[in-house]
């Protein structure tokens, strides 16, 4: 059945999601969390590429691996899955028949590929003039790179992120570093979500649909934020500082006896409290270290002394001591520690949903906290084609016999 629109912000919206992997599905999951009926269209037999991107895989009730990779589970909750061969004329016709029932089309095919199928924006808006059509690609719909395939890792490098991420050149481990998650993909999914919501709002006021052109490279350049404006203002590209700060010392990570902590000293008073808590008050009295400008000039002398001081105690001992002293600090948690954290638990950031396999799927919750229309967490990521009969029957009036005939021909 169609997800209930009750008490959701987007319960009146239906999204036809032709995207796969991460950026597009992340956007569609945001919309689904907010109540939209997201119909995920997948290839018969294989589905979204990420379904096989494991291990790890979801476990069934007996503890055996299912066919659902954890990667896929991360970006596909609250959706309905149908299988459809859109490369076939019959599949293309079904997409066109579904279109009047949908408000948004989301796709991440290569530039020009859907035009060959008659499923591009111009073709589909002829059927539904107020359609909102969002394309997600590596480099956008125009420009000299538009026909290149875009990958998050490559875009992190091309867009400047890796030039400011990683340890400094010349120190152990120095060199460019990508992020631990696919930030270009995820941020493109977030920007696409915002753009779709803005387009829906515009349509509500004007009745006018539009095309949205999202590119990973554009997003990566935009999210360089102050680093980008630092360069544009000065003409000098910023460099990598690892976990240190170019203008504040100490403002970095340190290895404690059993893990790492972050110390973010913002002024001279906090610095004194830090070294006093560590039993080294003389490091605050030393004129080489008494003020931040001097600490920056002498960081190569000071930081090893602070590192030795921190290494003498456990992570929790340091957190307790520095919080008591009013020194900004925090642990660097593994994910087991993250989900065991009392604040994370209090905020309900893990949800557990029953899965059609008979097991349970544990997922990070949506971080959007809304007093009237909170995000929903009622549908686990669907199995491949789980809702084909349901959706085609509900929206197009197809009977099971008609759908079985399509299935026999490999079209659904």
From TrEMBL:
This protein's UniProt keywords = Transferase
Its Gene Ontology molecular function terms? CoA-transferase activity
Which Gene3D superfamilies has this protein been placed in?
Crotonobetainyl-coa:carnitine coa-transferase, domain 1, formyl-coa transferase, domain 3
What InterPro entries does UniProt report for this protein, alphabetically?
Answer: CoA-transferase_III_domain, CoA-Trfase_fam_III, CoA-Trfase_III_dom3_sf, CoA-Trfase_III_dom_1_sf
**Keyword presence, Transcription regulation:** no
Q: What is this protein called?
A: CoA transferase
